[in-house]
């Protein structure tokens, strides 16, 4: 107890019972931060830290961002650091790549990743491949970020998940945060990384608040790219997921826990390079695997995980074939009842887990 | 005839109005996007008594006559030149008066390039290299423009918008550099050329867009590539200062690029130079252009309007060059190219472990494992591989 000193940030209130008598003092409510604010904080801190960092995209400046993720940044940093562009993804992605080649560190925002298809030549051919093609001479320290995957009622052309598309390409790093801690730590790591990084956010998660641990409040808090996180320990089955479905997996795990099934839920955090060590270690412990993703099944993230499990040591520990839970193999329908049933729901995850465990 | 003249008049009128508008838009003291101004758009002086247009989207007068602007393809943007086809200076005030050594450097660069083209084209036919594209007929555009740049300027051979991004970065850094982006009249049809032009203008970047209009995009002639007045006519549509030059006149190319460079850096704005020229050779070693154009057409350009010939006439008329030097230089340049080629052929190939590096700045573990696996494999079975051709 005497170790508490003036250097400790946490208020003395937390150990008040022993040291001082204080009335009507409760421990401070844990800090709640939405995913949107976490990304905003991360960008703000990196803009402040390095003047070569700048943000460009549609509506990012005066409008505060189409989803308000860049709120307040233009007011603070001005026209030189927060730039509104004409409506040409191909155009501003190319400009961002050129700026990165010439020594700046751009954050290129796509209003959604569906529009990144307009610019995909710039992302893959100009950004991802250039370091290799130049024999290590020309780096492209760029971040492409924006909301990815299904939203609500925006139909087929605005609901696609690009994790598998970008995860396919050597030269790119691809991250997919779930909660606020992921979002802040990964955007900061992405901005500091000298390789091109794709940050796949999720529009439906922007407004969701999460408890923000004290480490995450530091300006140097980073979540390492390429490292998954075990969100929930378990012994009976490994459930691997990324982005919003991680929350659904935790809900499914809570339901199954009451039935005596303990799920180990892994939040991938990074799509490429994939943290297979964590997944393999978990499968070797639980002997069962279910993957959960919002994207389409063919050539998807789950397909890659299953293939790699087969190629590695964990295969011999499987007691049953791995099962993938994915989005339905159709363009996202517009009718609400169809859309709801086209993305993995908690009941689908529970069903897949029970099927794998044969219960 | 009357239609054409009428069209020119209308076009010129709107061009003058457009230029006046451009001057109005460029407020003194505005450093592009760096001014802090509460309103992004120009201020409107609202006065209900005046019947002037108030639209934010254009600065122009009203007109009460229905008239479509005629695209001017019969009498297009004039072509700036300094020398005639016989290498004689037309307007002495446009002569750059370059010193002898510099003009000789132009000539030697163009002819060395020509020699290298011949040798490398042949070597592809012999199977010694896999692919080649020649520069026949376009040597003036390359050498004239490159000579007008500084050593620190950035050159993009393609990637139009990346060039604009680099120019934006150069402006941010106050680097006193220009970015020049070369492309053909075919590539100008790409959507990203539109984006590049528009962004260069709106972001006010120090960039020169240099279009080599050589008449063909592989087999597609310009008559099928566009219906407007070439590429130079597109520049003003984006608010970009534009010029069309005789690409086979190395002094015209030099003068235009030099002035564009000076102003692009001083004023932070883009320039568009369309260099008219002719592709004498095939598009590449995979092409046989006799399939889509006549030998007579090619011969005309080779014999009557070649950038190297025109500069040679200029040099001869000044007594700076003669047949003896021509013979000697031909021999010397050929020897230079052959020696460099043979030296390159003798060089060993890069070490196989470089297959795995530079995908990312740091090598990921899967690639490192593969690299180590290859190294082990070569340790055991190396004798079955032609390792002597590779760097140790």
Automatic annotation (TrEMBL), chain A:
Main location: mitochondrion
Compartments, record wording: Mitochondrion
Cofactor(s) this protein cannot do without: thiamine diphosphate
Gene Ontology MF: a single term: pyruvate dehydrogenase (acetyl-transferring) activity
InterPro entries per UniProt: PDHB_mito-type (IPR027110), THDP-binding (IPR029061), Transketo_C/PFOR_II (IPR009014), Transketolase-like_Pyr-bd (IPR005475), Transketolase_C (IPR033248)
A single cellular component GO annotation: mitochondrion
Pfam families noted in UniProt: Transket_pyr, Transketolase_C
Record keywords, A-Z: Carbohydrate metabolism, Glucose metabolism, Metal-binding, Mitochondrion, Oxidoreductase, Potassium, Pyruvate, Thiamine pyrophosphate, Transit peptide
Domain Transketolase-like pyrimidine-binding: 33-208
Enzyme class: oxidoreductase
Assembly mode: Heterotetramer of two PDHA1 and two PDHB subunits. The heterotetramer interacts with DLAT, and is part of the multimeric pyruvate dehydrogenase complex that contains multiple copies of pyruvate dehydrogenase (E1), dihydrolipoamide acetyltransferase (DLAT, E2) and lipoamide dehydrogenase (DLD, E3). These subunits are bound to an inner core composed of about 48 DLAT and 12 PDHX molecules. Interacts with DLAT.
Function: The pyruvate dehydrogenase complex catalyzes the overall conversion of pyruvate to acetyl-CoA and CO(2), and thereby links the glycolytic pathway to the tricarboxylic cycle. The pyruvate dehydrogenase complex catalyzes the overall conversion of pyruvate to acetyl-CoA and CO2.
Protein's UniProt name: Pyruvate dehydrogenase E1 component subunit beta
Record organism: Aotus nancymaae
């Amino acid at each position: 107890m005497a170790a508490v000193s003036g250097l400790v940030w946490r208020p003395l209130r937390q150990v008040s019972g022993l040291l001082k008598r204080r009335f009507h003092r409760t421990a401070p409510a844990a800090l709640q931060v939405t995913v949107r604010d976490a990304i905003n904080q991360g960008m703000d801190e990196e803009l402040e830290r390095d003047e070569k960092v700048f943000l460009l995209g549609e509506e990012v400046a005066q409008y505060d961002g189409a989803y308000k993720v860049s709120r307040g940044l233009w007011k603070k940093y001005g026209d030189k650091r927060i730039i509104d562009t004409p409506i040409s993804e191909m155009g501003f992605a190319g400009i961002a790549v050129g700026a990165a080649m010439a020594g700046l560190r751009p954050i290129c925002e796509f209003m959604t990743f569906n529009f990144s298809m307009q610019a995909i030549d710039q992302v893959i051919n100009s950004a991802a491949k250039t370091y290799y093609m130049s024999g290590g001479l020309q780096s492209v320290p760029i971040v492409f970020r924006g909301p990815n995957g299904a939203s609500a009622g925006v139909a087929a052309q605005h609901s696609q998940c690009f994790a598998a598309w970008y995860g396919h390409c050597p030269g790119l790093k691809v991250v997919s945060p779930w909660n606020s801690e992921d979002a802040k730590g990964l955007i900061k790591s992405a901005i500091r990384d000298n390789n091109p990084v794709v940050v796949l956010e999720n529009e439906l998660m922007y407004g969701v608040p999460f408890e923000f641990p004290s480490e995450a409040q530091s300006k140097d808090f980073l979540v390492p790219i390429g490292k998954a996180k075990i969100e929930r320990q378990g012994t009976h089955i490994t459930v691997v997921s990324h982005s919003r479905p991680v929350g659904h997996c935790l809900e499914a795990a809570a339901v199954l826990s009451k039935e005596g099934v303990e799920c180990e839920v892994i939040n991938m955090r990074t799509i490429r390079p994939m943290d297979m060590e964590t997944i393999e270690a978990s499968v070797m412990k639980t002997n069962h695997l279910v993957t959960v993703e919002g994207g389409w099944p063919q050539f998807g993230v789950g397909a890659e995980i299953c293939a790699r499990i087969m190629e590695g040591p964990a295969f011999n520990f499987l007691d049953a074939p791995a099962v993938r839970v994915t989005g339905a193999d159709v363009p996202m329908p517009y009718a609400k009842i169809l859309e709801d049933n086209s993305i993995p729901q908690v009941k689908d995850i529970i069903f897949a887990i029970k099927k794998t465990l044969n219960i | 005839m009357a239609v054409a003249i009428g069209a020119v008049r209308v076009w010129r009128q709107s061009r003058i109005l457009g230029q006046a508008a451009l001057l109005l838009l460029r407020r003194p003291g505005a450093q592009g996007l760096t001014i802090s101004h509460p309103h992004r758009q120009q201020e409107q002086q609202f006065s209900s008594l005046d019947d002037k247009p108030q639209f934010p989207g254009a600065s122009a007068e009203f007109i009460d006559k229905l008239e479509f602007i005629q695209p001017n393809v019969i009498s297009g943007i004039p072509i700036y030149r300094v020398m005639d086809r016989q290498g004689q200076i037309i307007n002495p005030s446009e002569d750059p008066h370059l010193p002898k050594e510099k003009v000789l450097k132009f000539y030697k660069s163009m002819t060395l390039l020509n020699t290298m083209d011949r040798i490398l084209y042949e070597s592809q036919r012999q199977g010694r290299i896999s692919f080649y594209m020649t520069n026949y007929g376009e040597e003036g555009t390359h050498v004239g423009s490159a000579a007008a740049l500084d050593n620190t300027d950035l050159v993009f051979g393609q990637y139009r918008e990346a060039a604009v991004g680099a120019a934006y970065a150069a402006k941010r850094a106050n680097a006193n550099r220009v970015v020049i982006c070369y492309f053909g009249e075919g590539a100008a049809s790409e959507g990203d050329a539109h984006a590049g032009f528009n962004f260069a203008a709106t972001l006010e970047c120090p960039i020169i867009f240099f279009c080599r209009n050589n008449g063909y995009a592989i087999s597609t002639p310009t008559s099928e590539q566009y219906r407007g007045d070439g590429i130079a006519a597109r520049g003003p549509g984006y608010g970009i200062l534009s010029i069309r030059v005789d690409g086979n006149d190395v002094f015209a190319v030099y003068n235009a690029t030099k002035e564009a460079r000076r102003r692009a850096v001083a004023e932070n704005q883009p320039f568009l130079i369309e260099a008219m020229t002719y592709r004498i050779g095939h598009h590449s070693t995979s092409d046989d252009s006799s399939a889509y154009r006549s030998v007579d057409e090619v011969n005309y350009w080779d014999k009557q309007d070649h950038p190297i010939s025109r500069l040679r006439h200029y040099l001869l008329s000044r007594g700076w060059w003669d047949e003896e030097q021509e013979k000697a230089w031909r021999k010397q340049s050929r020897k230079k190219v052959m020696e460099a080629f043979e030296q390159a052929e003798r060089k060993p190939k890069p070490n196989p472990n470089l297959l795995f590096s530079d995908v990312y700045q740091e090598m990921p573990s899967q690639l490192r494992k593969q690299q180590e696996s290859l190294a082990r494999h070569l340790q055991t079975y190396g004798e079955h591989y032609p390792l002597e051709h590779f760097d140790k």
